[in-house]
Design a protein that fits this description.
Radius of gyration: 18 Å
Protein name: ABC transporter ATP-binding protein
InterPro entries: AAA+_ATPase, ABC_transp_ATP-bind, ABC_transporter-like_ATP-bd, ABC_transporter-like_CS, P-loop_NTPase
Distance between the termini: 33 Å
CATH architecture of the largest domain: 3-Layer(aba) Sandwich
Order of helices and strands: EEEHEEHEHHHHEHEHEEH
Helix content: 25-40%
Number of strands: 10
CATH superfamily of the largest domain: P-loop containing nucleotide triphosphate hydrolases
Shape: globular
GO molecular function: ATP binding; ATP hydrolysis activity
Strand order of the largest sheet: 6-7-8-3-9-10
Strand content: 15-25%
Organism: Lysinibacillus telephonicus
CATH class of the largest domain: Alpha Beta
CATH topology of the largest domain: Rossmann fold
Keywords: ATP-binding, Nucleotide-binding, Transport
Number of domains: 2
Number of helices: 9
Length: 253
């Protein structure tokens, strides 16, 4: 089953330069699809567009076969809980004035009337928060801390916990390990793989790190200057058929 389909998606900056230039691809249910390319190539802009965080110039966005590119905010609301995003910088994603438990409960507070929970129990806020922290392998006592009181790796796990709290079907991971040390990177990647399998998630994994993408993903898309220039299964990464730019990326990882 196809979870997400993008057709001829285009997004321009005010000066007319195309950040995303007629991009098309599909993402299957349960898949981790990688999107790689150097900084500034349009990866994050594409992510914000397909999640309808930013408006698009033209093109189509289908979520499980339903066109969502033209929906107003009211009609888009039910799709918001099905598609979540984890950003690169967890410190920016968490309100420094809120305790971890307050940040974790916020998405549930927005969508609780529409949720039919299958993985987490909502019998009480405390039980719910404890389950979320357990899911991302964090201790329960972390709930009463503030973001500045925990490590960068722990902060990113909290943002992942918040993303899965409303049991989405698709998560966009936008450079989720870029701000972490090597040990924390490996641990977070292992956690994300485990969550995808146990919670039946689909991922769009955005990174400039081919090593991480090849570890995580079944298929890989390569983006350059707003365009998709190569796509292949991860076991074809070192094939001679790869685009010359893909080979450049391989040479430096």
């Amino acid at each position: 089953m196809t979870m997400l389909t993008i057709k001829n998606l285009t997004k321009s900056y005010q000066e007319g330069k195309k950040a995303v230039d007629h991009v098309s691809f599909g993402l299957n249910k349960g898949e981790c699809l990688g999107l790689v390319g150097e900084s500034g190539c349009g990866k994050s802009t594409l992510a914000r567009c397909l999640l309808r965080i930013e408006p698009i110039d033209s093109g189509s966005i289908y979520f499980k076969g339903e066109a969502i590119e033209s929906l107003d905010e009211r009609r888009l609301h039910p799709y918001r809980k099905k598609m979540q995003i984890v950003f690169q910088n967890p410190s920016a994603a968490l309100n420094p004035k809120l305790k971890i438990k307050e940040s974790l409960i916020d998405p549930y507070a927005q969508f609780h009337k529409e949720l039919t929970p299958s993985h987490f129990s909502f019998t009480s806020k405390d039980a719910f928060i404890k389950q979320l922290l357990e899911a991302v392998e964090l201790p329960a006592n972390l709930a009463d801390k503030y973001p500045h009181e925990i490590s960068g790796g722990q902060r990113q796990r909290v943002t992942i916990a918040r993303a899965i709290s409303i049991e989405p079907e698709l998560i966009v991971l936008d450079e989720p390990t870029a701000s972490l040390d090597v040990i924390s990177q490996r641990a977070v990647l292992t956690l994300l793989t485990k969550l995808r399998e146990t919670l039946n998630l689909s991922y769009l994994f955005i990174s400039h790190d081919l090593a991480a993408v090849s570890q995580m993903c079944q298929r890989i898309l390569v983006m350059k200057e707003g365009q998709l220039i190569d796509q292949f299964s991860s076991d074809q990464l070192f094939s001679e058929e790869r685009h010359s730019y893909t080979k450049e990326l391989i040479s430096i990882f």
